[in-house]
Fold these 2 entries.
Entry 1:
Amino acid sequence: MNSDIERVLVSEEEIAEANQRLGAQLTKDYEGKNPLFVCILRGAAMFMMDLIKHVDIPMEYDFMDVSSYGGENTVSTGDVRIIKDLDTSLRGRDVVIVEDIIDTGYTLDRLIELFNTRNAKSVKIVSFLDKPSRRIKHVHVDYNGVKIPDEFVVGYGMDYDERYRNLPYVGVLKQEIYATK
Ligand code: IMP
Ligand code: MG
């Protein structure tokens, strides 16, 4: 699997640092609020599980699965579908959306709007990665791990056609992997 990676963009050390920093900030900002962390499946699962080990206050979490990309497509369509909805009511809750990466911004823009209609008390975003150069919808990312250039990345939860999620770092795939599909 490692041999499919052109180069490492975010190392395991950088990931650990980002999680510590973000966890400490969230601990401070959400003291006494019992926030609900909403993990956007499947890409953000590994990130959330590492992040919350550094969140040292009472909190809860739930999962939601949405899709804007189909299969091997690497370009967002702006059409966000709910595949699996939350089990938890958002009414009056301080919600923290946990995302793997913000790219065009369509997914998070849509989710913020949806969560506001469900009467959340507040909705904030923590995104592990940010590709600011690709933004189409302006979305304020409250907590950001690492900004990256406009490249398709895999690993640390993120996939290409459902593969590479289990890599412990974030990398760029070799061009030939796409070419030979
Ligand atoms: P957006 O709606 O364009 O902001 O896309 C956000 C979603 O697209 C993320 O939650 C990821 O699931 C997926 N995505 C965007 N860029 C990448 C990437 O480089 N690698 C893997 N998934 C990505
Ligand atoms: Mg995602």
Note: The longest helix spans residues 12-29.
Entry 2:
Amino acid sequence: MIQERNMEIFTEADHYLSRDHHYFSFSAAHPPALVVSPGDLIHVQTWDCYRGAITNSENALSTIPDSEINPATGPIFITGAEPGDTLLVELIDIRTGPRGVARTYPDNGQLHHLIEKQYARFFDVEDGVVTMNEKVSFPASPMLGVIGVAPESGEISTLPAGKHGGNLDNNMNGIGSTIYLPIKHEGALLSMGDMHASMGDGEICGTGIEIAGDVLIRVNLLKAKATEYPVTETASAWITHGVAVEDIPAALQIACEEAAGLLVSQWGFTIEDAFIFLSVQGNLGLAQAVHPSTGTVIAKMTVPKISACPTPFNIA
Ligand code: CA
Ligand code: ZN
């Protein structure tokens, strides 16, 4: 079924990419679905992480193979993007659909041992408000769980995170944020999906409010500058990531090393002062830790924007 473009939103976009164009992996072997230039505005339509398979109480707990989780719309080829550059993806707007779902998985997540059976909960999203049940409602905070570029080598499923981005599940990857992705291949080959209407730090049951929607992005390039892992910039902070397989201390350490690396290389901090500054002003946390699932855990170090380090990269 061809997915129609919602013509009522993002009319300023230079390009549109339908969710019909998606893969369940990141790879330089995937042919581009769209070619754009730096500065272009792109309307990207995304599936929810189940590609629309979970719709009602009848199918709410149906098993979906890992190979069909997290369809990522793309890839988008950015003209002029070369290995060693950084791709800037500005999330100008994110519009969710009207209904999302969160589910538990057996033997997965921080409280799995306390529940007797798998469970799913549908949420309505209307006018920026999420309704869970008669008692519980809260503001929507839409974000993208999956965003990334073609990895340096091979094919990486959209389930884990890594240096290429992927399933970063950082709830700060929302409206107004810019995500810096280290480019390894000509054109960068950007893809995204796994929209959430809301997701807490840690994503402890294994899902956010999984939902389909539309994203308006602007892409740009930072030539010949890059980090090892993606970086997210918000209005008030920049946030480095660290990823490790089932190893929270290792992921935490990488996120700290990435932040210290930028403070030293871009802003002239000594490593000792970076260490101290991150201890007194940085906030170390977990983006995703669905313990004890056998996957990547993602740490984040949030660095406040002050005059000594106002952006991740010093481009003045
Ligand atoms: Ca995710
Ligand atoms: Zn998700």
Note: The first strand starts at residue 15 and ends at 17.
